Amino acid sequence: MKTYALVGTGGRSGMYLEAIATTYRQTARLVALCDSNQTRMDYANRNLEKWGHPAVTTWKAADFEQMITQHRPDIVIVTSVDRTHDRYIIRAMELGCDVITEKPMTIDAERCLAIVETVEKTGRDLRVTFNYRYAPHHSKLRELILNGTVGDIFSVHFEWLLNTQHGADYFRRWHRDKRNSGGLLVHKSTHHFDLVNFWLDSVPEFVFAQGDLRFYGKENAENRGVTDFYPRCHNAPHARNDPFALHMAERDMLKSLYLDAEHEDGYLRDQSVFSDGISIEDTLAVMVKYRNKTLLTYSLNAYQPWEGLNIAFNGSKGRLEMKLVENSYVNGGGERKEEGSLMDCEITWYPMFGAPERIAVEYGQGGHGGGDALILAELFGNPGPDPLKRRADSHAGAMSILTGICGNLSMQHNQPIFIDQLPVGRKLLSRHNREQ
């Protein structure tokens, strides 16, 4: 039986804690929790007991090393604020633990290089939880491409839509500060860029990006004629009729995780999406060239009326398209089992000469069409064969964020950024070349 410690007990941690406490209680055991906020750790322990797992010891973030030294977990699960991932990943590996980390692995090139070098130095295993790879529709695209259905892929057009529930949520919480999250090109698009790397079995070569804050933020709202503003939702009269307001007091999980915990650290989970202090973009366009010469055009817009994606692969044998509409959710809002659940998915193959063909997909139960259950089985159960190579290590985690990191640099300097301009990029591309 493997033992686990978890650092960062916010909304993202629940999927892992519940899996350990219920489905995988025969193969996994949690030994400790770590967070900067005792109220959140206490809430996590109450949930563990509700799920039939005994409460575990709790440690403040400053005592992370002491927790590792005392409990000697086999694996540390990192679900903390993105900008802190590197410190916990690196120290856990230096202290002899393997690591499972939420995506993004980290938020900038310097932190990425430090993680990659620590993996090399310690020989520890680092898994990045790209659950999108395991969603049946995404796996089906990988299978079709591997089987040569599309032939050589010359270009990919990828449009991701975040709606006014899920998309707006990034502008209420800590993600709104780019110093915490790296912006949506790193935090959210890392999923998408990883999928492209996964589908194409290639890595990016250079990135050109443009983006701006066009919809959220106070100035944009003022330009649209809004006159009533509030800094946060709780107890704000102007928030009562605002469809963008998040009423934490009306949702048990949000209240327990954040509203009841504010007295400890002052973190406000329900900031107005039309307040000042937002430093991330909500409108993004990216072009990427891959080492196999494929071109990607990508867009992300965080204020759309529906949630999902449109993607097309243009190849030597025809065109493969997918349109996916997902149910959206608010992180920590109590809808975790519905996260990424499907409303509609259409995959269509258009052969160069022939009639279009609808591609059938078999789905499982739970989030992302059953994909969440599959990755949890790999993390906490007994992993089986991986013919599609869905397991993501530190190399995959690094290559996915480098697209977003270079996108941020491209916006900053208004020019294309080559991956090998970065020390970590040169290191990773050298490894990629050796393995080809």
Count of DSSP strands: 15
Integer-rounded radius of gyration = 21 Å
Low-confidence stretches: none
Largest sheet: 9 strands, mixed
Shape: globular
Count of discrete domains: 2
The fold-level CATH name of the largest domain is Dihydrodipicolinate Reductase, domain 2
CATH-derived architecture of the largest domain: 2-Layer Sandwich
**Reading side by side through the largest sheet, how are the strands ordered?**
14-13-12-11-7-10-9-8-15
- For the record, the CATH class of the largest domain is Alpha Beta
Distance between the termini: 36 Å
* SS class: alpha/beta
Percentage of residues in DSSP E strands: 15-25%
The overall pLDDT average reads 95
CATH superfamily annotation of the largest domain: Dihydrodipicolinate Reductase, domain 2
Helix content: 25-40%
Number of helices: 16
GO molecular function: nucleotide binding; oxidoreductase activity
Domain Gfo/Idh/MocA-like oxidoreductase N-terminal: 3-129
Pfam families: GFO_IDH_MocA (PF01408), GFO_IDH_MocA_C (PF02894)
Keywords: Oxidoreductase
